[in-house]
Specification:
Chain lengths: 159, 83
């Protein structure tokens, strides 16, 4: 942001804050000087992720089966890719649970699925929590990247 | 209940979610409010109050929608003439 833009409160795009906010939720606000706000954003995103993985297990993040949900989950940053990788290595590989034949129509290729994969409500809610965490972080990314210095000053003044 | 003993938290999905899944709306709305209010609240001294208000708003709105849909499905739709 230029000094002139900052002084006039003109909205500009700060790509560094956007990248930082994607890498670690809240970091975009943190580097802009709003440390408390950044910490609270991290707390909220972490809360949604912990609840989502607790309810849905690692299978709540599945890039191949639920790719459209994964687009939303990826808004939270590298954690979505890390959990997807853990799902591949722990659940889908059969390291936890047992691999069994998936139901298939006659003539179709029979896939193997894990007995530890998520189904029904638990899976739906796990996906929902983590996808909403990603979508909320996208809002935080946009806010961190476009927040003017004037808005930050107002926050400091408590108005 | 015995399958709870074999459950590995954070690896496998929570078992026996049964009929209490609507209660998961509470942590969901708390999480959404935590993030949204962290972004939008101007004075963070009011953060806890704003989170509480927004959580209640989400829960009441969802309960209201549930009541409206229940009225439509249970009461209004059966009144429609069958041809």
């Amino acid at each position: 942001m230029t000094t002139e833009a900052a002084n006039t409160g003109q909205q500009t795009f700060n790509p560094l804050a956007a990248i930082c906010a994607w890498l670690i939720p809240g970091l975009g606000h943190w580097i802009s000087g709003e440390k408390a706000r950044g910490g609270l954003i991290l707390l909220g995103i972490a809360f949604l992720w912990i609840c989502g993985i607790f309810i849905g297990g690692l299978d709540a993040v599945d890039r191949s089966s639920d790719w459209l949900w994964f687009v939303a989950q990826a808004g939270s940053g590298p954690i979505a890719f890390a959990v997807n990788g853990l799902n591949e290595r722990v659940i889908k590989s059969g390291n936890v649970g047992e691999l069994i034949d998936a139901p298939a129509m006659r003539g179709q290729k029979i896939d193997k699925i894990s007995t530890s994969m998520g189904i029904a409500r638990a899976n739906e809610y796990g996906i929902l929590f983590t996808a909403l965490a990603g979508l909320m972080n996208m809002i935080a990314i946009l806010d961190a990247a476009t927040r003017t210095k004037g808005e930050r000053r107002r926050e400091g003044e408590g108005t | 209940m015995t399958n709870m003993l074999a459950w590995i938290p954070f690896i496998e999905p929570v078992p026996n979610i049964g009929s209490w899944w609507p209660l998961l709306l509470l942590p969901l709305s708390i999480g959404l409010s935590l993030v949204y209010r962290a972004i939008r609240t101007k004075d963070l001294a009011n953060y806890a109050r704003d989170v509480t208000i927004m959580t209640m708003q989400i829960i009441l709105a969802m309960a209201g929608l549930g009541i409206v849909f229940a009225i439509v499905v249970q009461w209004l739709v059966p009144l429609l003439p069958v041809t």
